[in-house]
Amino acid sequence: MKKICQLNPNEAVKHLQSNDRNGLTNQEAKKRLAEYGPNALTGKKKTSLVVRFLSQFKDLLVIILLIAAFISVAVNPKEWLDGFVILVVVLLNATLGVIQESKAENALDALKKMSSPQAKVLREGTIQQIESKKIVLGDIVLLETGDFVPADLRIIEAINLQVDESALTGESVPVEKQAEKLSEEHSTLGDLSNLAFLATHVTYGRGKGIVYATGMKTEIGKIAARLADPDKELTPLQKRLEQIGKVIAFFCIGVCLLVLALELWSGEEFTDSFMTAVALAVASIPEALATVVTVILALGVERMAKHQAIVKKLPAVETLGAASVVCSDKTGTLTENKMTVTTVVNRKGEVKKLEEPLTDEEKYLLGLFALCTDASVSNENGEIIRLGDPTELALLDAAEKIGIKNTMQRVAELPFDSNRKMMSVVLKTQSDYLIVTKGAFDIVINRSKTANKKELYDINEELSARALRILALGIKKIKNLPAVLKSEEIEDDLLFLGMVGMIDPARPEVKKAVFQAQKAGIKTIMITGDHLQTGIAIAKELNILQDDSEAISGSVLNKLTDRELFEKIESYSVYARVNPEDKVRIVEAWQKKGHVVAMTGDGVNDSPALAKADIGCAMGITGTDVAKEAADVILVDDNYATIIVAVELGRNIYDNIKKVVQYLLSSNTGEVFTIFTASLLAVLFPGFNFGVPLFAMHLLWVNLITDSLPAFALGIVDIDDDLMGIPPRNKNESFFANRLGRAIIWQGLMIGTLTLTAYLIGHTADPTSYLGQTMAFTTLSTTQLFHAFNMKSKHSIFNKRLFSNKYLLLAFGLGIALQIGICYIKPLARVFKVVPLEFNYLLLCFALSLVPIIVIEFVKAIRDAKRPPT
Fold it and tell me: Which domains are seen in the chain, by residue range?
């Protein structure tokens, strides 16, 4: 069956069982409304708050902690405080998780707002104004300048009808609409000249269309359906944290069962053995990790906001740092989304940029161009109101830019006609009348007198090849004004005065940003609904592509299978005349190649790809509500360059998170080693009463308080100078790559050995009191506080301003004060089962705590000595 665009108007009306003269009957419209539903956008049911909260407990680490908490209370009710604290920690993390989540329903709400609330339709032979949601298939809709299109329409009558489709297709120039059928099948929305789409608007002329799609069946509706379920993958950070969680969980289960077996084998009571296993479970799991990462990301959000990037979804902060490909919309993102006159050509064929000094004749040319328009710019109570075709508004802007103010009176007009492709106005001069004709170059030049036509044709071709839109202007003087203006009389035998070239220009700051992205190993891709040559011209100006072969049109793209697109995707840097679904295919193909994809855009046509990309960035000023709601990040200043700053901040945040993970997991490794080794020694030396070096309460304190304070401070370490000189990290790179796993293990074993040493010294000195546990607890806490300074930099801390991070110094001081307070304030000492330390024991704990700084500084010195000079 032929598509609706391939049917002539009568066939289209017949196909939709309507009548172009009278429209539908009210009864038939009511029947169709009941059958097909309202002309409205719908979305999936929102997830309830309870379900979202419960979903936070799916994590394996959380399940292990909950089991440990409940069983510990059941086995030993007297020690209920340990289980209660664990439960509070789990509930706190779940609450934070719910707060973090973002949903796509807001994007659907924004799409709904774009629908026209009222529309003019023909029913029972009369024009009726109805709510757009009551429009049905087969309704005849009347359109005129300023109207929003209320549904997807097949145009059946068009009188100079032009529709702005930039928000849907990305094309910066309004599209001329026609009623004639299309002879061949077109897959690109921008090429469907006899269709008008929901949420676009009429900029010129008038027309009539028959509704062939409503609600979720419209092109906007298809976008809404994709936004309702964007099927977004986990971010790189989420994947890595999930990986860490699984490793820790299985390690925790295995070690806990092993220690429980060792404890029972050594003759310990089941209750004591189980509490040791609970302590080990607490030691294995970095309870503060999720909270600390959340806070670091939140601080990153604040920092990015200061650089004009508003982050809506916390994981997006880090994901930006992993971006290896930036897929950018052209219109409004790489360009200004404003047609601008850039080139002036006088009648002699001299080509000048608008910024160059112009002759009086060239200024006269621009002045006449401005008079031969129907556009207007006015100031109403301080607000600039711009009305009319973007091309004509560009002519007004050019005249204003060079300070031209025309005083000639316009007395008559021959309006633009899509068949003539011209417009003429009649101006009154002192002695006669001046006819000014503006139109397509080939039309105006053929109606003009000029001796250098071939030269002007060559210039036109050259400028057109640079994707400039060319308008020519001719004039003619007449003595008397005819009663009726006829084209064949007044638009002939003209004096060719010149032409202008205009384009939606590239943003001036983008070229530098693209270079910075390339330096950081990030590839910039242009995706546009505009014409191929326009995309190529802008891309070459911005150094996005070097050769025309790196560009592909939507019609060619649609012929490629997903497999073929996957194989060829890295060969292209520009994709032109593409539909919203094409943009999603492009993003998916890059993702399948292993890239982390950022997508920038501002229109409705960008929103599905914004939702699908690893990181979606919408423009804050020119961006539609739909694009903003679908995105993860909003660039407040509409500056493509802002994304490069955000990438640098994202990389810094990821580096800091890795430092925090290393810091926290080395502590957990030390805790596990301490308890496991003590249990093993109890089996190997049954005659020596080893006891438990650390209680669950000690471990919770270290994990939640002592470790957390410096961890927060490590999350805001300054950016390294070479951060944007290295390529993006691999999408599938393990969190423990680049020897991080090895460093966590040997540093954790060192911390555990020092903690166990302190315990054995204290326990040997007084096995009847909590001296051993107090020394182990104190040594573990202070060792971690000193160890935080090791994490500041890969290089020596003494070369990188040891005291530059005031938050780390504050965390260190507060941690030391709290630890001493626990030991020497009696109520706290009873809760934590510790005793006041004599000065020599306290000094010994601090001496042991300094060992990691000495050892790690020595390792750094050896590594830096081996590194070749840069």
Answer: 4-43+108-228 (2.70.150.10), 318-336+508-645 (3.40.50.1000), 359-499 (3.40.1110.10)
